[in-house]
Amino acid sequence: MTIDLTPYLSDTGPKYLAVARALSEAIRQGDLLPGTRLPTHRQLADSLEVSVQTISRAYAQAEKMGLVQARVGSGTWINTLDDSRESEYLRGQEPRWESPTIDMSIAHPVCPPLHHMRFREALAQLAEQASPEVIAACRPIAGLLHQRERASEWLETRLKVPGDADDRVLCNGTAHGLMLAIATVVQHGDIVLTEALTDHGLIALSRTLGFQLRGIAIDDEGMLPDALDRACQRFRPRAVCLTPTQLNPTGATMSEERRDAIAEVLARHGTWLIEDDVHALLEPPGLTPLTARIPRQGFHVTSLTKSTLPGLRAGYLTVPRGQLHHTLPRLRATGWMATPLMFELAHLWLADGTVEELASQQRELLAERQSLAIRILGHHPLAARPSSLHVWLSLPPAWRAEELQQHAEQEGLAITTAVPFMVEQSPAPRRIRLSLGGEQDIHRLETGLERLASLLDEAPPPMMQIVY
C-alpha cells in the first residue's frame, strides 16, 4: 500500500525516530487504522527518500512502542486497539518490589505493614477455625450460603445495593464479575455502551466476548445523560457498562443528581445496566449506586481488591431477579466457583469490622498521597478525588503524552498515557494517569513526582541529529 507520512515528519532528531513518531501521529489522527498493513521497508524508504536501514529501525521502534506488529511472511501491521494499548505490567512480568523504576503506572492500593500483619493473623485464625465445608467445598456454584448471607447484609447496609443472599454471586474479583454479568445478557456482535475513556479491562473483554463497544462523551462527573440518550436511540445497545464512582482513569464521580438522570435514561430505554463499583469503599459512605435506582435491570459488581489488599480477590456480583440461572453456567464454565477460603477470610473481616477499618485507612493513606501530588504538581491542571488511586494530569503545551512517557522511562519512571483507556480511535487527550498506590514507600513516590515535575517544567530535550 501507499501511505503519506510527510505531513507528520519533523526535521529534528534521528530520522528513524522521526518516522516512528510520524506513524504514531498518523495513527492518533486516524489516518492509519488498526489492522492496516504497512508498506514494505523498501517501499517506504523510497517514498520518504531515506535508507532501508532507517525504515527498519523505525519499524522496530514502532513495534517497541506498541504501535505495530511484524508478522513473519506477512509484513508489518498497525496493531489493533487492544494489542497496542496493553500496559507493560500486564505482559507477564513478575512484580519487583525493589525495582529501580518508580512505578506510577499500575492501579494499586497502598499496602503498609499493618495490612500484611492483619492478613497473616486472619490466615492463622482460619487455620484454627475453618470448617471442612470451607476447605473441601465444590458447591454451591454461587458460593457458600453463610458467606453470601454475610456479604448480602454488608452490600445492602454499607453500599446500598438492594437484594438478598439468593441474588448474590461470589466471584474472583471485579473483572470476573463484569465478565459474568456481560456474558449473561450480551451476545456476540451486540453493542455495549460505556464511557469514552474506561478501564482497559473492559476494552479487552469486548474482544474476548466479541461484542461491539461504543464510547459515550464524559465530563468531570462521568457519562453525559443527553449523550447516553442519543446513543441509546441510535445504537439500541444491549447493555451499558458504567463506573459511576472514581472512573478509571479520570477519577470522575457522579453526583446523586447525575445518577438519577442516567438511571432515568436507562429505565426509559429498557437497557441493561452493568455497574462497576470496584472503588465504592474508597469513598466515604453516602453515594447510592445506580443499581439501587433500577434493580430489575441492573447488575452490580464490586470487590475488596482496591480498598483492602489486592491479593484478596473477593468479588461480589448482584444479579437482577430472574437472571441467576443464566449467570451460574457462566460462573461454572469460567472457574466452577470462587475460591471459598478467600471468601471465608472476607467473611471474617466483614463480620469483625476489619474491611471498613482497612478501607478507612486506605482513604487516609491515599488522601496523604493526593496532597503530596498536589503540592508537587499542582501548578499543572489536574483532576482527582481526595481518596482516589490516581491523578489525571494535563500536560504543558510543549509535551506530547507519548514523548513524556518515553523520557520518563529514561528517568526511571513508569507512567500511563490516555491511550489504553480509549474506547475508539480518536485523538488522545493530552493527559497522563499517575497512580499513587503502587509505590509502597511514600518517599519513593515523592522522588518520582519530583522527577516528573522537573520534566514537565522543561521543554522536551532535543534529539541529536544523525545523518544517514
TrEMBL record:
Single GO term (MF): pyridoxal phosphate binding
The HTH gntR-type domain, residue ranges: 13-81
Superkingdom per UniProt: Bacteria
Keyword DNA-binding: yes
Keywords, sorted A to Z: DNA-binding, Pyridoxal phosphate, Transcription, Transcription regulation
Keyword Transcription found: yes
PROSITE patterns, per database record: HTH_GNTR (PS50949)
Alphabetical list of InterPro entries matching this protein: Aminotransferase_I/II_large (IPR004839), HTH_trans_reg/aminotransferase (IPR051446), PyrdxlP-dep_Trfase (IPR015424), PyrdxlP-dep_Trfase_major (IPR015421), PyrdxlP-dep_Trfase_small (IPR015422), Tscrpt_reg_HTH_GntR (IPR000524), WH-like_DNA-bd_sf (IPR036388), WH_DNA-bd_sf (IPR036390)
Membership in a protein family: In the C-terminal section; belongs to the class-I pyridoxal-phosphate-dependent aminotransferase family.
Alphabetized PANTHER family for the sequence: HTH-TYPE TRANSCRIPTIONAL REGULATORY PROTEIN GABR
Protein name: Transcriptional regulator, GntR family
